[in-house]
């Protein structure tokens, strides 16, 4: 039966409008799907193993108090003996040096202003002789640089020069004591008491944690660290001055200060540079209340040897270690991997933690930097760059056309 004119018209209209609809849909669909921006591939962090820790064994002396620390490691690494403040004898002169330098700073290698001595300084000499303190000769009218006065105080442990330095810097030894108390408070050394500039007063006392901090402050000061590491020095009008630290130059010891007093026994605040594996660490420590310097020197050497064993050079990352993974809807996968092998020197009982920060990635070639892994141990931080180990590429037109719902 032949189609009527109306039926033919309807069919033509259907074809025309259908074709137009297809053309219109194609005109919009193809660009939208082929050009639509892809979603970011969100990284999933992987479980990362950190080095195991163990408590080192240190044989601290049974007398007095002692402890170990290290530059770059917070607080005290380990300690033994009493925890109450003990007399510190001439270790007090380290405080004197730092407090004077706080008021009268010196640049490294600088001699500083001259001190002209008077009868007051001769009185300091006589006062110390009467107390059986360590002294160096002085006379009214004698002139000496601030640097040389500090060297006599720290190397030869001359009590009268400690008094002269304190009085010169602050007007009197009493005024120095007030300044020292203020300085101690600012440094957070609340367990330390200073009653004079020399340490001949047994009221000068401190704790192991405070003395570890004091040692770190001394090593951080370029003037003090240089003086205490000097074995001998020729000073005009005095002659050859030798450092009283009998361990200087032994087992890496490069400072800091001896102390001897009936009420304090034999004491040593020390620093030593040691190499462990490919790393170097500056150890600091203190021994208080020993029977004599020979005995405490042996104890310090033993502690230094044990401290070496207490440090471990650990591998934080090996190049290519994976820290996060990227998965895309179209099947590309990649990992955020360590860009290099990294090692660090870690104290045995200090936990190692890691914080991974990685960015979302849309399209990127292999080798693109995508974040960092930050390892923390003590107050040290080691940052390791993370790179993509494979390319995240565009999925191509076929996937785009056949997966429109995964694009929007």
Polypeptide structure, described:
Helix 3 (119-130) runs antiparallel to helix 5 (159-170). The longest helix has 31 residues, at 5-35. A six-stranded antiparallel beta sheet has the order 1-14-15-19-18-17, with no helix packed on it. Mean pLDDT is 88; it is low at 15-30. 33% of the residues lie in helices and 29% in strands. It is built from ten helices and 19 strands. It has three domains: 1-35; 44-51 and 316-406; 65-290, Beta-lactamase (3-Layer(aba) Sandwich).
Give me some keywords for this one.
408 residues; alpha+beta; Beta-lactamase; 3 domains; six-stranded antiparallel beta sheet; five-stranded antiparallel beta sheet; 10 helices
Domains counted in the coordinates: how many?
3
Could you name the ranges where pLDDT drops below 50 across 5 or more consecutive residues?
A: 15-30
Q: Say what the CATH topology of the largest domain is.
A: Beta-lactamase
Assigned CATH superfamily of the largest domain: DD-peptidase/beta-lactamase superfamily
Rounded to the nearest angstrom, the distance between the terminal CA atoms is: 50 Å
Taking strands numbered 1, 2, ... along the chain, how are they ordered across the largest sheet? 1-14-15-19-18-17
- Tally the beta strands: 19
Give the % helix: 25-40%
**Secondary-structure class:** alpha+beta
Main β-sheet description: 6 strands, antiparallel
In N-to-C order, the SSE pattern is HEEEEHEHEHHHEHHEEEEEHEEEEEEEH
CATH architecture label of the largest domain: 3-Layer(aba) Sandwich
The CATH class designation of the largest domain is Alpha Beta
Beta-strand percentage range: 25-35%
Number of helices: 10
Q: Any idea what the radius of gyration is? A: 36 Å
User: How confident is the prediction overall: mean pLDDT?
Assistant: 88
Shape: elongated
């Amino acid at each position: 039966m032949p189609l009527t004119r109306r039926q033919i018209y309807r069919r033509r209209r259907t074809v025309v409008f259908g074709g137009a609809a297809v053309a219109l849909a194609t005109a919009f669909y193809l660009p939208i799907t082929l050009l639509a921006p892809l979603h970011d591939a969100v990284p999933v962090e992987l479980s990362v193993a950190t080095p195991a820790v163990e408590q080192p064994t240190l044989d601290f002396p049974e007398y007095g108090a002692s402890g170990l620390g290290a530059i770059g490691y917070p607080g005290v690494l380990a300690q033994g003996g009493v925890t109450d403040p003990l007399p510190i004898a001439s270790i007090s002169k380290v405080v004197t040096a730092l407090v004077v330098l706080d008021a009268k700073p010196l640049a490294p290698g600088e001699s500083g202003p001259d001190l002209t001595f008077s009868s007051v300084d001769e009185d300091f000499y006589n006062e110390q002789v009467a107390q059986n303190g360590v002294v160096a000769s002085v006379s009214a009218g004698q002139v000496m640089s601030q640097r040389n006065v500090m060297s006599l105080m720290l190397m030869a442990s001359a009590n009268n020069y400690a008094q002269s330095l304190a009085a010169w810097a602050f007007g009197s030894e009493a005024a120095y004591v007030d300044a020292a108390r203020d300085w101690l408070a600012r440094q957070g050394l609340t367990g330390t008491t200073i009653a004079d500039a020399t340490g001949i007063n047994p009221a000068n006392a401190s704790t192991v944690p405070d003395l570890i901090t004091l040692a770190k402050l001394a090593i951080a000061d370029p003037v003090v660290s240089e003086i205490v590491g000097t074995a001998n020095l020729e000073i005009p009008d005095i002659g050859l001055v030798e450092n009283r630290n009998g361990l200087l130059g032994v087992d890496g010891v490069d400072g800091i200060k001896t102390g001897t007093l009936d009420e304090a026994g034999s004491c040593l605040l020390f620093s030593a540079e040691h190499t462990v594996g490919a790393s170097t660490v500056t150890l600091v420590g203190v021994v208080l209340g020993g029977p004599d310097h020979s005995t405490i020197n042996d104890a310090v050497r033993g502690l230094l040897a044990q401290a070496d064993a207490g440090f471990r050079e650990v591998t934080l990352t090996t190049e290519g270690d994976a820290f996060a993974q990227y998965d895309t809807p179209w099947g590309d996968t990649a990992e955020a991997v360590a860009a290099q092998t990294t090692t660090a020197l870690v104290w045995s009982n200090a936990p190692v933690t890691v914080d991974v920060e990685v960015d979302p990635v849309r399209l990127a070639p292999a080798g693109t930097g995508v974040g960092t892994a930050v390892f923390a141990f003590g107050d040290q931080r080691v940052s390791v760059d993370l790179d993509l180990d494979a390319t995240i590429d565009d999925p191509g037109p076929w996937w785009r056309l056949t997966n429109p719902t995964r694009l929007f």
